[in-house]
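Hey team,

Filing this mostly as a record. A colleague (T.K.) asked me to run one chain through the structure pipeline before their review meeting, and I want the input and output archived in the tracker in case anyone asks later how it was produced. No errors, nothing strange. Just documentation.

Input sequence:
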Amino acid sequence: MMLRLLGWSIICLMISGCKKEQHLPVTGPSCGEPFSQESWITETLKSDYTIQFPDNYMGPGMTGFEGPMFLKTRDDNNVQFSYAFCNGLYCKEFGDTLEEPTPNTIFSTDRSGQSVQLTVRRVYCRGEDSESILFYNNNAVERTGKYYMKIDGKLVEALNIYYADASQGEITSILRTITKK
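Output structure:
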């Protein structure tokens, strides 16, 4: 009887002590060739890349005297694409490099400057090759995203994206228009 009780106690301890391994949800991948929207406006995204937007987006696109910065906002202000990877002297086209292996969670700041954890990622690829990753949160009011592009074999920060939950499909469509010049 005592051995049976001890056995059940050990089994209960093993079951309760086990934790499910937590993985970052991965959606996608959104694979295939980039697509061009003939009715959309083509903008320079980086010196070697372009991106397209529907005609209801405003803003200067890529600008900068001491280096590039980028801003495009939908006319209802529910979607914004931007980057400004600047220090005190100049701005760069790309921000931080993702460490390898790709982390399960990254942090960013929302439009109000608050730190947010980005717990979902969508992989974008051409054929079998992973080209980029969008990390984002599942905030029901406004999502915060960071888009990383593979440059010289490394994933580097390319865009910050803020958008309403209902705009997820539009974000995917816009990101799939990014092409090398």
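Quick notes for T.K.: The chain has two helices and 15 strands. Residues 1-28 have pLDDT under 50 and may be disordered.
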